[in-house]
Design brief:
- This protein has 271 residues and is α/β, with parallel strands linked by helices.
- It contains five helices and five strands, in the order ββαβαβαβαα.
- The protein has a domain of 109 residues.
- The longest helix has 16 residues.
- 17% of the residues are buried.
Length: 271
């Protein structure tokens, strides 16, 4: 499976890969591929599309985080969808638009438990005990990930763990009384734009952010024996979002998009 992450200022994948990795492509490059511009490279099978975070030009971020003007983010999404809809890849594509940290301030629905057989952690790693592929074999051990900072007690991850569990001590087992990875978070919006999307359909199946991984894994990482290659037990147990699609009839193939959303004439952000 070929994949890429498009970015405008800083790719979020820098947490795992070095800048200059060929999987990082500029957003203008992505738009050229979507429209089939002369000389443009083919579109990868999977693309993670990142908004502008405003790291280098304050007030220009399009990620809709407070306190930015959400009109700018909506205009950015609109351009992306218009280019896809009018380009050569629309007929066999699917766009998943979602948000993070949303819903918690107004949502009346209690977050459900995670589907992992009643275990507190899907992969046996408690909060603060990361394992990743950044510096194998050391980083593959619990607590050895470069973003855990388990031994030195510094860094964002350690501070966040103390917010969950003030009595946390990296030298001791994780306290059973502290929160773990056994429930999902508050609901966040998820929209599917695709020729295969069911019309006027609202899914009532419990899903989470790893459901997008589960869908990608089922489509691109299923072996000849029918077994799916998963990253973790969390996405292995996640719903694959297939109820939102009709892959046989393409019911939304000829659906017209809403008119392009223009960027804000007057910036509504506090700054």
């Amino acid at each position: 499976m070929d994949w890429a992450e498009s970015f405008q200022d800083v790719p979020e994948g820098l947490a795992y890969l070095r800048l200059g990795d060929p999987h990082f492509i500029k957003h203008d490059d992505l738009l050229g591929r979507l429209t089939g511009a002369p000389g443009a490279k083919p579109l990868p099978s999977v693309v993670w599309v990142n908004a502008n975070k405003g790291y280098f030009r304050k007030g220009m971020n399009s990620d809709e985080h407070p306190s930015s003007d959400i009109q700018r983010g909506q205009a950015w999404v609109s351009q992306l969808l218009q280019d896809l809809r009018n380009g050569p890849y629309w007929k066999d594509s699917a766009v998943l638009i979602t948000y993070d940290e949303a819903g918690g301030f107004y949502d009346h629905v209690k977050p459900p438990p995670a589907s992992q057989g009643g275990r507190r952690s899907p992969d046996g790693l408690d909060p603060g005990a990361c394992a990743d592929a950044s510096n194998l074999p050391a980083s593959g051990r619990p607590g050895g990930g470069v973003h855990c900072f388990r031994e030195r007690k510094i860094g964002t991850t350690y501070d966040e763990i103390l917010g969950l569990c003030p009595q946390y001590d990296p030298a001791r087992p994780y306290p059973a009384s502290c929160p773990n990875f056994d429930q999902l978070g508050f609901r966040a919006p998820l929209m599917v734009i695709s020729p295969f999307a069911k019309r006027a359909y609202v899914s009532h199946v419990v899903a989470d952010h790893t459901s997008m991984l589960a869908l990608i894994e089922k489509r691109f990482l299923t072996g000849p024996d029918g077994k799916i290659q998963h990253l973790t037990q969390r996405d292995a147990n996640a719903w694959t979002l297939e109820d939102m699609f009709d892959f046989k009839t393409s019911p939304s193939l000829n659906t017209r998009l809403a008119p392009p959303a223009p960027p804000p004439v007057k910036d509504c952000s506090p700054t």
